[in-house]
Amino acid sequence: MNKENHSRLPVMSGKRVLSASSSESINSCSDQQPAQKKMRRVDSDPKMRQTASATGAKRPLPPKRAVAKLIRHTGAATIAAGPSRGFQKPSIASVAKAAPIAAVGGSRRPAWDLKGKVTDMEGKISNYQRKVKTVAQENESLKESVAKSRQKEAQMTSDLQELHTQLSQYELEMAALSGVKEQLAIVSSEKASLAKNLCNLTDEHKVLLGLRESLEAELHSVQTQLSVQASTLSRCQTTLRETQDTVHNLEETVARQTDEIHCGEMERRELHNTIQELKGNIRVFCRVRPLQAGGQSDHIQLPAHDNKALTLAKTEESHIGRSGDTQKSYNFSFDRVFGPSIPQKDVFEEISLLVQSALDGYNVCCFAYGQTGSGKTYTMEGGEMEDMRGVIPRAVQQIFQASKKLREQGWKFTFTASFVEIYNETLRDLLYTGKANKRPEHEIRKSANNEVTVTNLTYQKVNSEDEVCNLIALANQNRSTARTNMNDHSSRSHSVFQLDIEGENSGRDVKCKSSLCLVDLAGSERVQKSQSQGDRFKEMTAINGSLTNLGIVIAALANKESYIPYRNSKLTYLLQSCLGGNSKTLMFVNISPEADSFPETLNSLRFASKVNDCVIGTASANRK
Ligand code: ADP
Ligand code: MG
After folding, report:
1. Residue burial 83-111, b: 16+ Cβ < 10 Å; e: rest
2. Which atom of ligand 1 is nearest to the CA of 287?
3. Ligand 1 closest atom vs CA 340
4. 494 lines ligand 1 (CB under 6 A)
5. Which of 23, 327, 466, 510 is the least crowded, having the fewest Cβ atoms under 10 Å away?
6. pLDDT tens digits along 71-129
7. In this structure, which ligand is nearest to the CA of 600?
């Protein structure tokens, strides 16, 4: 409002001047010019224009209106100063007084000088007309400037709008940029971590570079090696071809030599058998047990340089007194005499030749004869320690080892083990594992091809030494023992371990079959000495009967008698295929070195000598 009033100020002052006097109005008209100039200045001055733009509609009134007012007032004055019909002259004077008009010349015309006055008036009118014309021109220029100002205003409004638009865009951009700022913070933290990673990766890169260098060096050396090996390989291939030729030749040689080996093996068997026959198909070995109290026996003398002789000496009291005592000596000779210090290993060496014969297809029978406590079981079975092992475990070991070697020459073997006890002329299966009250009875049967079998007996297929050892342990559990006053733990029965061997060389169509019988005989002591009675007496009678019959059978075989009384005892009947013409027999006579065993020792040695004197017909291998 104040600005509006202020902007209208020049117009208001002009109005006041015109209402006061016409001369003044002329002045006031001239006074208007500064106001118009001011207006123009506003339009032309950019500062002022800015202020005006800022105020918007509240601009100063356009000069047109002010000029219009000015003209209206002037007109009224002119009309008022017009001639009046009633009082024309005074009126004119009064009008002149009332509305004094400044004379051009400044001097007042006399009342009569109407013509002068009209001239003045006309001058004034032309003056006013000029002024009107000027004002109109000014008005026109003002209109133009208004139009320009309007244009500028519109321009500025559009500029302003543009600026607003830009501002809002900038605000939007600002908002967006604040998001960008956050992102920038995230990105900068990411950048920091990436820089860290880069640092780590750079380190790793360095390490890898070093590694690569070392690997390249390694590769280089490997490549060198490779080239060396490639040349070695080509050399080897040449050698291989040569070797293949050699192998081919060698294979032919091997085939030829295998034939030769087989022929050699068959020849060896024959020669081996010839040697055994020359040694005698029945052999007797004497073994002297060491004294249980230690030291040396007085009555058993073993010549130092003869391992086949033994002398039993006894001093007999003379009827005429001490001085007449006589020394009685009994000389014996056997295939071999083993003194008390000879170890199991050395004893077996002699038997191993017969074990080989068993593998070659000959029946072999080995007895241990002697009084209870003389060392029969020790000789046949021995102890568990390696150097205490007796004939049976060593023979089994030899057979399995030898059969393994023969397998390389195309031989296949099957082994069947059985273990029988003959007690009181009754057979018992020592490999029986059933209930004691359900033990079956056994009978000895002889087949058409002279093979002897026992009914209901366990014939156990065995494939290894261990399996046989387990069977021996089982047999020992089953074995019946009885107490006598001579030996608390002596066997009162014969035990027969039998290993049936069947061999086949299918490639050469050769088969062989044989039996290895290892017999631990019952004690040979006489009945009266053991002072046995009742059942014990019966036992002793059975034992002595079978042992006597064994002697008779061997003697009959030696004499080539037509009738051999195998059936007289279960022992000889069971062993008939292993005794005589088709077999090799070895008898150990075990003797006790104690003085009180002298009569039994003499008895045993006499029995063994009888057997030793027998010559059994030449054996032939059971070849098919
Ligand atoms: P048998 O079977 O004839 O009744 P043993 O074989 O049981 O006799 O022997 C009786 C005792 O003598 C056993 O303790 C055995 O260990 C021992 N013995 C037998 N022969 C020998 C020997 N050659 N060396 C050492 N000890 C032996
Ligand atoms: Mg015994």
Report:
1. eeeeeeeebbeebbeebebebeeeeeeee
2. 23
3. 23
4. no
5. 327
6. 444 443 344 344 444 334 444 444 444 444 444 445 678 888 888 888 888 888 999 99
7. 1
